[in-house]
Specification:
five-stranded mixed sheet, D-Maltodextrin-Binding Protein, domain 2, six-stranded mixed sheet, DctP_fam, 14 helices, signal, single chain, SBP_TakP-like, alpha/beta, TRAP_DctP_sf
């Protein structure tokens, strides 16, 4: 068992000792719906991991059954409604899937040119982020909790190299959320295609480019077999997943079970973040070995600056018309004033230092 696994088991053991015997005897049976199919690892592992930990911490008295998208067959944006309505007590998803219901929720996943994963967790737990998230989600009668981070998502697979802004004009690309709005401002024909159709659409030229996640999940889709250009990310620097919990169901739980559940969600968020990093690192190593012709690219500086300007325009536009969006937006910007200088000193400067001594 690795170090992370031992840490999680120790945490479970401590929590188990804290659960009163009376509460342990109470039987609770919940259902959790995932936005992913049961085979889409590592995302699909969150539900099973959570169910196992909660069961272990309550001697099997708190049972959570989980369903992948292939079983409940709900659209991505419908999962919030299913948890809100009580069809499922819990869900595991990403906030920007219901951008159409409430654009402010997108911040609780990520935003273009925004926080890194470490910065975002700092904001969640020490910068008022968790409190703002509960405030935003209260209108849906659900609680939302961090559910694991994918880290920096890649900028996408492109059939042709992007050398200037002109190369974006008329480009047909699958890219969702706020990033899609940004690219639309730059002349891209943005579309959203079901995951199962993406490979065929790219292969046949129905689309010219697409953004998915990162090497760990992209390699399973086979995009690297079609397109030679793989671009670094800008649009999703820290995509946080969410555990949604029906408010009425959670409030009915004994306090000890509430503690068990919230502690387990926090532990699984850590494990999911580590799993995503591991999957990406291993897959990128495999891609480089098997397909050395893949071109790892960074968008040209003029393109990046245009993306940033368009992103600011999109975000400022929403902030001007939506007070709640503005509150969260301003909170994140304020936290970055403190967080980003330290990120540069600690992470960026260290990597530059390590590069020097490794040459």
């Amino acid at each position: 068992m690795n170090r992370l696994g031992r840490m999680l088991l120790c945490l479970a053991a401590v929590m188990l000792l804290a659960v009163p015997a009376l509460a342990q005897e109470q039987k609770v049976r919940w259902k959790l719906a995932m936005s992913w199919t049961s085979t889409l690892e590592p995302l699909s592992q969150a539900g099973p991991w959570l169910a196992q930990m909660v069961s272990d911490m309550t001697d099997g008295n708190f049972e959570i059954r989980f369903e992948g998208a292939e079983k409940h067959k709900a659209a991505l944006g419908d999962l919030l409604d299913m948890v809100r309505g009580g069809q499922f007590e819990m869900g595991h998803s990403a906030s920007y899937y219901w951008k159409g219901k409430d654009v402010t929720t997108t911040f609780f996943t990520t935003a273009p040119f925004d926080m890194t994963a470490a910065e975002q967790y700092g904001w969640y737990y020490y910068g008022g982020g968790l409190e703002l998230m509960q405030k935003v989600y209260s209108k849906f009668d659900v609680y939302s909790f961090p559910g694991g981070n994918t880290g920096v998502q890649m900028g996408g697979w492109f059939r042709k190299e992007i050398t200037s802004l002109d190369d974006l004009k008329g480009l047909k690309m699958r890219i969702p959320g706020l990033a899609g709005e940004v690219f639309a401002k730059l002349g891209v024909n943005v579309t959203n295609i079901a995951p199962g159709e993406l490979y065929t659409a790219l292969d046949r030229g129905t689309i010219d480019a697409l953004e998915w996640v990162g090497p760990g999940m992209d390699i399973k889709m086979g995009f690297h077999k079609i397109t030679p250009y793989y671009y670094a990310g800008w649009q999703e620097p820290a995509s946080e997943l969410q555990f949604l919990v029906n408010k009425a169901a959670f409030d009915k739980l004994p306090k000890s079970y509430q503690t068990v559940l919230t502690t387990a969600m926090q532990a699984i968020a850590l494990k999911m973040t580590a799993a995503n990093f591991e999957a990406n690192a291993r897959a990128w190593e495999q891609m480089k070995a098997e397909l050395p012709t893949i071109n790892m690219m960074i968008f040209p500086e003029p393109v990046l600056k245009a993306m940033k300007a368009a992103s600011d325009e999109v975000l400022e536009g929403y902030a001007a018309e939506n007070a709640e969006f503005k509150e969260v937006y301003e909170s994140r910007k304020a936290y970055l004033v403190t967080a980003r200088p330290w990120t540069k000193v600690s992470e960026q400067y260290y990597l530059e230092t390590a590069d020097v001594v490794s040459e």
